[in-house]
Amino acid sequence: MVFIIIFIIISKMEISFKGKRALVTGASQGIGRDIVKQLVKCGAQVIAVARNQELLGLKDVGPIDLLVNNAGLAILGPLTEVKEEDVDRLFAINIKSLINVTQIVVKDLLARNAPGSIVNVSSQASLAGLNNHTVYCASKGAVDAFTRATALEYGPKQIRINCVNPTVIMTDMGKLGWSDPKVAGPMLEKIPLRRFGEVQEVVDAVTYLLSDKSSMITGTCLPIDGGYLSS
To which protein family does this belong (predicted)? Predict the structure, then answer.
């Protein structure tokens, strides 16, 4: 009897995207690649976009029910050394392409009078100042503001829009950039859990926000930061 009850509970917690079409940007590596794998595992038909030039020129992708705006770029350094082309590239990928893709998907959802769910991958850098991250912080702050505004605008149409705000995540690039204890130490000291995040922890949060399990959540920026922002 106990086994049957546990099985029922677990079954109710399972997430299924069967019959749904999903679009994931920045899908060639790291978080994006694993999001694609998870959505396929949950039954979605997934369109994966990997190239930055495709983002800015993306037009007709057919009906999309789920969107993950994961593509992003980081150019770091002191503000006085930031070049104009760096600013243009950061905002082109981190916010302009995100707006472009979201616009395409929302127009289609409205035309079909269909509900939808969108998750934007932002950063803890949108919620806290980080040294040598000035323009990156600004671009991710724009992602959060865009998320809140679009959630307000399209909530009445049953289109939910949220974002996740990860700390350092142990992708291949994350491991490369944060493997030096002298670099990682000061950041880890600010994270109550005393560790960086794993890719699957972001994937799980994105999957939840896309799913009907979060049907009353929209306009939220969810930190995945081990408590970094609590300090």
Answer: Belongs to the short-chain dehydrogenases/reductases (SDR) family.
